[in-house]
Design a protein that fits this description.
The protein has 2 domains: 3-194, H-NOX domain (Alpha-Beta Complex); 225-328, Homeodomain-like (Arc Repressor Mutant, subunit A). Helix 1 (3-15) runs parallel beside helix 3 and helix 4 (62-69) runs parallel beside helix 8. Helix content is 58%, strand content 8%. A 5-stranded mixed beta sheet has the order 1-2-5-3-4. The protein contains 18 helices and 5 strands.
Length: 330
């Protein structure tokens, strides 16, 4: 997980009664580990810190207080890119594309219709911290959106876990209908307002920041993972050159049986299909962003038999059609 997220949570915890000694005893984290905001730290640290906060401040909707206090740097470089985006839809595209730069195991799904667009997200740590981290993420995102894009696009909010304070506090914070214990953490927006142009402030700077995020993503894939995951990602990338995104092809490349590689992945709480789909989606976005290939050529390079199959898969994962995505990144 990005150090800026961990640091913000730790600083908030200390300011609300949790000692650094308690945090170190619970997580092994020391204050000097937080100096480099561009560093990465284990995902479980934030969840463990939230356990400490929740234990001494029960029933106070503390996640909302943190969301109100965190600076834009909570989102790292993504926040700077979002500031220079021409519309909220482009912000959403970038979040889909680079959300792993915030937290390696963050899972994101987008469902976009003509009237509503829903963003569903989850993280393995949700079961550890009782949904505190999810509340902070949703609330900080809503605050960022109001600050830079206005407050009318958000339609409703739902959380997988129970509320950590009085429901009225959440209604007042979000200003839209809200539900808890739904099994999903999800923000739903008006599709038409996502496309409302706000004017790009500095396209050259935005492009430079996007390139930086591309480089960070590559580093995370290649250096910040155990050798087993590195091997899988390398095999996926090699197979992608021949448009092979199948699990069987992945197993063949690694000279293992499908059953064996799935068993190894399951031990590490990894879904191979998610890794393959993530790589395929990243490749799709890169090809669509170049504007040099038509949709038939992009579909072929991604291993789809026809454009319709590619379009369905792309919309299922990103919430947009390939054509809409291409137009949004011009």
């Amino acid at each position: 997980m990005r150090s800026s997220v961990v640091a913000a949570t730790v600083h908030f915890a200390v300011s609300h009664g949790v000692s650094m000694e308690q945090i170190t005893a619970n997580t092994g984290l020391r204050s000097e580990d937080l100096f480099d905001v561009g560093d990465r730290l284990p995902d479980h640290i934030v969840a463990n810190v939230w356990q400490l906060i929740d234990a001494i401040r029960p029933g106070e909707a503390i996640p909302l207080k943190m969301a109100s206090a965190v600076p834009d740097t909570y989102f790292g470089v993504l926040a700077h890119v979002w500031r220079y985006s021409e519309d909220p839809q482009n912000v959403l595209n970038l979040f889909v594309r680079f959300h792993k730069t915030l937290a390696d195991r963050l899972h994101l799904e987008v469902s976009q219709g003509s009237n509503e667009t829903s963003v569903h997200f989850s993280h393995p740590s949700d079961s550890i911290d009782g949904g505190c981290g999810a509340e902070v993420g949703a609330a900080a995102t809503a605050s960022f959106g109001r600050k830079y894009f206005g407050g009318d696009a958000l339609l409703r909010v739902q959380f997988a876990a129970a509320a950590h304070g009085p429901l009225k506090l959440y209604k007042d914070f979000f200003g839209v209908p809200i539900e808890f214990e739904t099994g999903r953490t999800e923000l739903t927006f008006r599709t038409d307002l996502l496309a409302s142009s706000i004017g790009k402030i500095d396209s050259d700077l935005s492009d430079s920041l996007v390139q930086y995020l591309e480089e960070v993503s590559a580093v995370l894939r290649n250096e910040a993972e155990p050798s087993f995951l590195k091997g899988i990602r390398k095999a996926i990338e090699e197979n992608a050159r021949s448009a092979d995104y199948s699990i069987q092809g992945l197993a063949d490349r690694l000279q293992l049986s499908v059953r064996s590689i799935q068993r190894k992945a399951k031990k590490r709480n990894i879904r191979l299909i998610d890794m393959v789909n993530e790589a395929r989606m990243a490749h799709a976005m890169k090809l669509l962003s170049s504007q040099k290939l038509n949709l038939e050529e992009v579909s072929f390079l991604l291993g789809y038999s026809e454009v319709r199959a590619f379009a369905r898969a792309f919309k299922r994962q990103s919430g947009q059609t390939p054509s809409d995505f291409r137009r949004s990144v011009r």
